[in-house]
Design a protein that fits this description.
With 191 residues, the chain is an alpha+beta fold. Helices cover 29% and strands 34% of the residues. The protein has helices spanning 2-22, 53-63, 100-104, 149-153, 166-179; strands at residues 27-28, 31-34, 37-45, 67-72, 76-84, 106-116, 119-134, 142-148.
């Protein structure tokens, strides 16, 4: 009996180690590391009339205070993200367990929206954060602290994502997913 349990423990340990190694270290929570860039991609399904999709996407982009320089192209839209903030309280995060760049940071980056039949795909890249940090000197001035998101969540050689950042990647992913969902956007009434 003890030998069976011992063999089972060894087998399950080897299986779990193999399964952990088989996961792609460059993908997690809709984020994907490609070369020297970190991309977030999500495809949203759209079940209403297909000819309304472009209108709904345009209205969603117009309603966001953080989307700037939106340009239409043959496949969809491109633009910039500025002043984006993650609402950590909304997702049940505390300031003790979440890095300050999520609580106090303002994010900038770029986005692409590609319109497809009955769906649209949002890609966000070039994410940077900036937060004001109090100095410890006599005058207590504030100085901006800036950084690239890819440097905060990847290993030193940028070959994979840090496992210690997985929960924070999920937080950022859910925040972006909710903010680019046309079903979560309040649109003006049509006349």
């Amino acid at each position: 009996m003890q030998i069976r349990v011992f063999v089972w423990l060894i087998f399950s340990g080897v299986f779990l180690a193999f399964e952990a190694d088989s996961q792609d270290p460059t993908k997690y929570a809709l984020f994907q590391l490609e070369g020297e860039e970190l991309f977030w991609r999500n495809t949203y399904e759209y079940s209403d009339a297909p000819d309304e999709l472009r209108y709904r996407v345009v209205q969603m982009l117009k309603s966001k205070f953080f989307t700037f320089n939106v340009t239409r192209n043959e496949t969809g839209y491109t633009g910039e993200i500025r002043y984006y903030q993650v609402d950590c309280k909304r997702y049940g995060r505390s300031s003790l367990t979440t890095p300050r760049m999520y609580w106090e940071g303002e994010w900038t980056g770029k986005f692409m929206v590609v319109l497809l039949p009955n769906q649209y795909r949002v890609t966000i890249y070039a994410l940077h954060y900036e937060k004001l940090e109090q100095s410890s000197g006599y005058y207590r001035t504030q100085q901006p602290v800036k950084g690239m998101y890819i440097n905060a969540v990847t290993t030193k050689k940028k070959k994979g994502l840090k496992k210690s950042e997985f929960s924070n990647l999920v937080l950022m992913s859910v925040s972006l997913k909710d903010n680019f969902d046309i079903n979560n956007t309040v649109l003006p009434q049509q006349r």
